[in-house]
Amino acid sequence: MADETLPAEAPPPVPPTALEQLVADVMAAVPQGVVSEGRVVRGAEAEIRADRRALPALMTMLRDDPRFAFNLCVHLSGVDFPDRAERFEVVYNLLSMTLNHRLRVTVTTDAAEPVPSLVSVWPSVTWYEREAWDMFGIVFEGQPDLRRILTDYGFEGHPLRKDFPLTGFVEVYVSVNERVKHGYKRLKNVRK
User: Fold this and answer.
1) In this structure, is the dihedral angle defined by the CA atoms of residues 80, 114, 140 and 90, taken in order, positive or negative?
2) Maximum Cα–Cα distance for the chain, whole Å?
3) Is the pLDDT of residue 136 over 90?
4) Tens of pLDDT along 20-70?
5) At a CB cut-off of 8 Å and minimum separation 6, what does 53 contact?
6) Between β-strands 35-41 and 72-80, what pairing exists: parallel, antiparallel or unpaired?
7) Burial of 56 (C-beta count, 10 Å sphere; 0-12/13-18/19+)
8) At 182, is the secondary structure helix, strand, or coil?
9) CA 33, 39, 45, 51: dihedral to nearest 10 degrees?
């Protein structure tokens, strides 16, 4: 009798984690091309990369679909990558309080292309969009109150852009002798 060895049985497939299943469910729930990538980062953070033009429909679905129930946009932030064609990433952190899960949604844009505002989906996002505009210059189309929120109204530029000078464009001074006297002085040697 010949020595017959049976092939070793392959181990059973590992079932997806709850976060991997969440990402897979989101990607399956949207039309092709709306989400370009979905993954779980560091084993604990679910994230998807989406097309900015489909953002309002995607976020409305994530809020209203009971499988996801993301009823809160916890935060929105900007990230600047000046070497990229679409230099800005807009990052939304969503929370489902009923299902106790989180999702990060990222879209890209440049200085000229506006990102659709999500004020109609989550009214409180107006504060975050104003901050992203003030700090990075990211424009949100449909934002009813796009004005500065952290810098002075006369401020020039957007201080969290990587090409913003470290010293700024002007220096604020206050007179020690006169309490109310203050002003702005244009700085020289500002790197362009």
Assistant:
1) negative
2) 107
3) yes
4) 999 999 999 999 999 999 999 988 899 999 999 999 999 999 999 999 999
5) 116
6) unpaired
7) middle
8) strand
9) -20
What is the predicted pLDDT for the residue at 152? 82
3-state DSSP call for residue 121? coil
- Which residue is listed with tokens 């949604």? 105
- 10 Å Cβ neighbour count for 47? 18
pLDDT of residue 188: 57
Supply the mean pLDDT for the chain. Answer: 87
CB atoms within 10 A of CB 116: 19
Cα separation, 107 vs 103, whole angstroms = 13
- Of 3.20.20.140, 3.40.50.300, 3.30.460.80, 3.40.50.970, which CATH number belongs to 18-146? 3.30.460.80
What is the C-alpha separation between 30 and 36, in angstroms, rounded? 11
Amino acid at 8: A
Give all strands (DSSP E) within the chain, no chain letters. Answer: 35-41, 45-50, 72-80, 88-96, 101-109, 115-116, 140-141, 170-174, 182-186
- DSSP type of residue 6: P
Write the single-letter amino acid at 15: P
**Three-state SS at 87:** coil
pTM, entire model? 0.81
Say if residues 89 and 108 touch (Cβ distance below 8 Å).
yes
